[in-house]
Structure formats: C-alpha cells, structure tokens
Amino acid sequence: MKLLLHTMIALTYSISLAADSSVYMANGIKIGEVDSDSAIIWTRLTKYPERKLTGYQFKNIGKISNKQKSDVKFDGMNQMPEGLTLGDMEDSVLGATGEVRVIYWPESSQKAKKETKWTAVETDNDFTYHFKLSGLEAWTRYQLSVEGRASAGDPTTIALKGSFTTAPIPNQEANITLTVVTCGDHARRDDLEKGHMIYKTIKDQIKPHFLVHTGDIEYYDRPAPWAPSVSLARYKMNRLYAMPFTRDLHKVTASYFQKDDHDITKNDGAPGTNFGALTWEKGLKVYYEQFPVGDKPYRTIRWGKDLQIWLVEIREYRSQNTEPDGPEKTLYGKAQKQWLIDTINKSDASYKLLISPTPIVGPDREAKKDNHSNQAFKHEGDEIRRFVASHDNLFIINGDRHWQYYSVDEETGAREFSCGPHSNTHAGGFKQKFKTSEHKFLRVDGGFLSVNVSRQNNSPRITFRHHNVYGDVMNEEIF
C-alpha cells in the first residue's frame, strides 16, 4: 500500500512537470574567483523554484561501521523509506535539463551590457554550469542577470539578478572589507527555515567586498543523511545552498571557496580516503562541480595596493597523517610550498593574508593529528610559522576549528585568527579553561571574522574583528 502511494505521488509530479516546461534556479548563483578583470559565475538549473519543503524524512540507521565506511559498494541509500527516490525526500532540490546564459554590465553603464552564449547544462555535472567572465573593469561594481530556459527556442523562465565588485589594480589605494567563515553543516543551522544566520548578518551589516569559505562547507560523514555516494553528496550540497540566507548573500557578494576533509569524503581525509561508494576522486568531482573555482586549488589574489590574499590547499597534495614526521612530510606538497614562499616574498602589498582551511599556530587539542599545529606535521609547521613570522605584515586566518581565537606563537611570533563555526550549536571541542598564554583571545561559540584594510593619514592599517552570529564585535585587533 505504501509503495503504491509513493508511486502515485511520483506520477503526479511527473505529470505536472510534463505540463510545465519552466526551469528554475533554486540554488541561486555563486560568484567566484573575482580579481581585477575576471570572475566565474556558477548556477544550476532545477525543476522547482524552491527546495522540497514537505518531503519524507531519512531513516535513522545509526552509526556507520568502519567496514561500511571503507566498502565502495555501500552507498547509504538504505536510509530512504522503501520505494522512494531522493526527489521525494525533504529539502531535495531536483536538477533539470536546459540552457543558461549570463548578461552582465558595469553598474554605471547599462549600455555596456554583454552576454554569454546560451549553454546547455549536463546531467553528469548535476545540471551546473560555470561561466568565466573576462575583460572586466577593475574596482567596478557589476550587475548581472543569470537566465535559464528549458531548451533552445523556449522562452526564458528564470532570471536571477546579482552583483559583485571587481578588485582594484595593485597600485590602487582602496578601502577593502572581507569576511571569513568555516564549518557549515545544514543540520546545525540556527534558523530551520532560512539557514545560517551569519549569512544574513554578513549581507545586511558587514556588506563585504568578498567572502572566503575555508571549508567543511558540508559534512558528508554526518547523519540525516550520511552521504557515502555521489547522489547523496550532491543532495546535501544542494539543500544547503537552497537556504534563503545563503542564496541572498551569494548573489550580491563575490566568494572564494576552499575545501577540507568533510567536503571530499570524511574526517581527516587524504588522497585514497574513501567514504563508502564516495571515492576520493568522486568527492573531488562533486566539489569542483558545485563551486565556482578555477583549475588550480591554491591561488593568490591582489586587492589593490594594500591587500593580497593567499588561499592554500591542504588535502590534494598531503602526506598521510600516519607517516612519520620529518622534512618529507607535507600538507602542501613541494610545488605549492615553493609557490607560496616565492609569491609572498615577491609581493609588495601592505598587508598579506595566508588563509588556511586548518590551523597553523593553534594551539589545538593534543589528540589531533591533521594540521600544522599538531605534532604529526610539526616539521613543516615549524617551517611555515618561521616563514610567516619573518614578514611583519603577514597574518594567518584559519578555519576548521569550532571556536574563535587570536593566537601568537610563542616560539616565532606568527599570528593567527580563527574565524569560528557558522552557528553556536556547532561550537565546541574546546573550552575557556584550556586558554593558554598564546591565546590573546578565545571564545568557544559561533560567528565569523571580518577584516578591513584602509588608510588613515595616508598610512595603511588592518583591522581584524571576531563577530558573533548577530554581528556584535567580540574582539578587535588593529595593526
């Protein structure tokens, strides 16, 4: 009887879709990799204008055994009631075939409108598409309209408006504000209907020129559902980016995305680490299709005379955690590490930010073994901390830790700011009583970090602020 009911519901949906050739963009748009003359615009066509609000709940199948986690035949689909598909589940965001294009122009000149060609989205890429815009004007606010239609010749049925600001050229003085976030997780959002409060706060109060997400965007290895397959990984990313607060920010703010372990397969992942049927290679494919990132995962972007940022990659080239520490053990790999050292040494920016998915200074919990602040990677960690401290205008910003802090390494003087998790319910893993002499500020709660680079009496200054989820300033450091 239950199976018959589910079949009738699915048939009703299919009949409705057959009568309606409209396509939508329930996941909104993401504007990525913005520099002084280019940007990447991401979008995804969907069957419905919003996520499914009245679907079925996933079954609680309890903990997943280590045997299941390593079994590439385990896809986790037994979490759904019998006879259902992912499209029947609550918060699902079904994709749709069709075509997309982008129309864009400088805010001050609608006559300068340009448009891309209509391009078909592909099922194999989860109905997503990335448009690379080039030849943009520096330090300019751009407006755009991302449009979708069911097929060539059909009318446009969705047009999302958005905007972003390009970076200034290297010798241009500019007042720049950015925000940094980490550790999302749909299950631990603070507004069940609209998502994570920090996105509304950042959009309405901070209004940054860009945002950096340091990773742990979503957690495949957490329940409701566990996501040991490509289809479930896509489901979790799609529902997260269908939340209104998140969509509203990303359509008006440029973003740079980094990835961490939970965004690829599972906790402490490295090349070769699988999570059930979600192999390392498949996890990387899902990440690169879901976010507007370029071909190389590590990159540096100049934002005018006074600011340059470095976004490092700590998963794709790393050694295994269990290898003995020493000169050859690495999170960066030789090529990336040399690139990092060379480009930082070459930069003449007033302030330099090394933005890392995981901590470099910490201090972290003693039992952890997955980052530069841990004993497992101490040799390279010491090397990087010494290098950072040799530049008096270089600061570290990190994600991954579920608490906020500002720390100064006692051995080298390297300075690090931890932005904190998306929500208060996601905070934990540390306590105020663990505060050390290296902690100049410690707060075990949710929020984000904002950074402002400006000039006062013709001298540059940089300000770091830890905020709670509502935007209140919890800590401020000015250099």
Number of strands: 21
Summed over residues and divided by their number, the pLDDT gives a mean of 95
Taking the alpha carbons of the first and last residues, their distance comes to 68 Å
Q: Count helical runs.
A: 8
Overall, the morphology is globular
Largest sheet: 9 strands, mixed
Element order, helices and strands?
Answer: HEEHEEEEEEEHEHHEHEEHEHEEEEEEE
- Strand ordering within the main sheet: 6-2-1-11-10-9-19-20-21
Short characterization:
The protein is α/β, with parallel strands linked by helices and 479 residues long. The protein is 18% helix and 24% strand.
Secondary structure layout plus pairing:
Layout: H1 2-18, E1 29-32, E2 39-44, H2 66-70, E3 99-106, E4 114-115, E5 119-120, E6 128-133, E7 141-149, E8 158-165, E9 176-181, H3 197-206, E10 210-213, H4 230-240, H5 244-250, E11 254-257, H6 280-290, E12 299-302, E13 307-311, H7 334-346, E14 351-356, H8 378-389, E15 394-398, E16 404-408, E17 415-418, E18 439-443, E19 448-456, E20 459-467, E21 473-478
Parallel strand pairs: 1-11, 9-10, 10-11, 13-14, 14-15, 15-17
Antiparallel strand pairs: 1-2, 2-6, 3-4, 3-5, 3-7, 7-8, 9-19, 12-13, 16-17, 16-18, 19-20, 20-21
Helix pairs in contact: 3-5, 4-6
